[in-house]
Recover the amino acids of this structure.
């Protein structure tokens, strides 16, 4: 009996000025259900291969859009960022990793991020990892540090403390 | 190595020797450059011989203590806290006095009581002023930046009071206290320092223009907060760099001599060692 396997992967990365860029890939294929009972290892290999294919496709798509944006004039790029609209339609302030280019956060920003996180009793390393894919605020760029401070300021201490 | 020799009969302290060769410094600050321009021997005492200041003028401590309070105000804003009340700013001001280890030298009409009253009026005026509520993202408060901006010279080190990014520009600000409103010469003078700072911070927001700004809190009967703005002029930046380069070459060449003047000497913390300097 054929088995329908659905595999999908989505990824978003942050962009300057509250923008974001996202891409997703979903595939469906039919597999032999016998694999589930007789060769589980082969089944896992197939699923893993499907995920790897999705991951590669998503990365390629994000890379293509990022490069496309970099080739625009600064004004065009800024226009995109102000509108918060990107080629894939994603927009606004969202979770996900941001592009880590540009000068690193200032000592004042790092100090402020640590101070706000302390006040909120936040697991900063976890929060930074989720939002920016890094573990310490000093690894943020100046621009991302500003976004991080804005986001942290908007977090209520009670709900936030529970989640992070 | 440069050394200073003092007469043992008149100076109980061991003769202060140069603790480091001028060339050993791997950075130079604007205040060091300005110190040399004011008096090369004062520069030597402070930066080469490493002499502790024998006294410090009350106006210097006062300015530094006000600065302490202003720094606290902007840090609170950066951290998403409400602007601190004047009482909190005054507490920071008092801490600024406590941090001072050298004996403070007051002028005849000064005392801690009168200065405290002045500080409160100044901080109240500051807190009510628009300049205390910058629009945009605060990127740095008392931010120390260091970078190689003049080929062949050590890194330039700057401590910038406030860096703010607005949608259109990067604003680099310096806060000062002054007995009176600034003259045009003082404005020009202060801009030089900011020109160097602009070079250190120009990649903070590469697509945006830079505006240099300094705010002066006057110690007058009616406190004023004056704002002066300037745009970085490439010719002036170039001139400032050349001046720094020449000053550095003089320091490297160990050209140290006193530059006596009523204005320089009255507040100098090295008056006694200067008098005993054999030349």
């Amino acid at each position: 009996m054929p088995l329908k396997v659905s595999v999908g992967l989505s990824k978003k990365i942050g962009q300057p000025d509250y923008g974001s860029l996202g891409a997703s890939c979903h595939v469906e294929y039919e597999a032999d259900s016998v694999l589930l009972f007789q060769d589980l290892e082969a089944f896992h290999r197939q699923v893993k291969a499907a995920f790897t294919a999705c991951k590669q496709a998503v990365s390629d798509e994000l890379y293509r859009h990022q490069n496309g944006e970099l080739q625009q004039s600064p004004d065009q790029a800024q226009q995109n960022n102000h509108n918060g609209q990107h080629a894939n339609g994603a927009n606004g302030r969202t979770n996900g990793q941001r592009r880590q280019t540009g000068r690193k956060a200032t000592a004042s920003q790092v100090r402020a991020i640590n101070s706000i996180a302390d006040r909120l009793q936040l697991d900063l390393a976890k929060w930074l990892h989720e939002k920016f894919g890094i573990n310490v605020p000093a690894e943020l760029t100046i621009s991302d540090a500003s976004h991080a401070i804005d986001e942290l300021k908007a977090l209520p201490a009670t709900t936030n403390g529970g989640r992070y | 190595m440069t050394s200073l020799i003092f007469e043992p009969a008149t100076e109980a302290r061991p003769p202060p020797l140069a603790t480091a060769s001028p060339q050993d410094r791997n950075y130079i600050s604007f205040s060091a450059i300005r110190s040399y321009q004011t008096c090369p021997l004062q520069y030597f005492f402070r930066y080469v011989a490493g002499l502790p200041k024998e006294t410090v003028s009350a106006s210097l401590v006062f300015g530094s203590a006000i600065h302490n309070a202003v720094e606290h105000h902007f840090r609170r804003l950066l951290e998403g806290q409400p602007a601190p009340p004047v009482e909190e700013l005054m507490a920071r001001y008092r801490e600024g006095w406590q941090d001072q280890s050298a004996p403070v030298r007051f002028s005849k009409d000064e005392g801690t009581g009168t200065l405290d009253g002045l500080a409160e009026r100044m901080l109240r005026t500051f807190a009510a002023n628009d300049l205390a509520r910058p629009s945009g993202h605060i990127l740095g408060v008392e931010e120390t930046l260091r970078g190689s901006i003049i080929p062949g010279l050590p890194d330039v080190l700057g401590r910038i009071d406030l860096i703010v990014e607005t949608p259109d520009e990067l604003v680099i600000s310096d806060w000062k206290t002054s007995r009176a409103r600034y003259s045009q010469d003082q404005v020009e003078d202060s801009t030089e320092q900011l020109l160097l700072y602009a070079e250190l911070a120009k990649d903070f927001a590469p697509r945006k223009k830079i505006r240099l700004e300094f705010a002066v809190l006057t110690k007058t009967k009616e406190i004023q907060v004056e704002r002066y703005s300037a745009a970085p002029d490439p010719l002036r930046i170039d001139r400032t760099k050349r001046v720094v380069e020449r000053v550095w070459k003089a320091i490297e060449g160990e050209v140290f001599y006193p530059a006596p003047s009523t204005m320089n000497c009255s507040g100098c913390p090295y008056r006694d060692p200067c008098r005993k300097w054999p030349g």
Residues 63 and 84 of chain A are 18 Å apart (CA to CA). Chain A is about 55% helix and 15% strand. The longest helix of chain A spans residues 40-70.
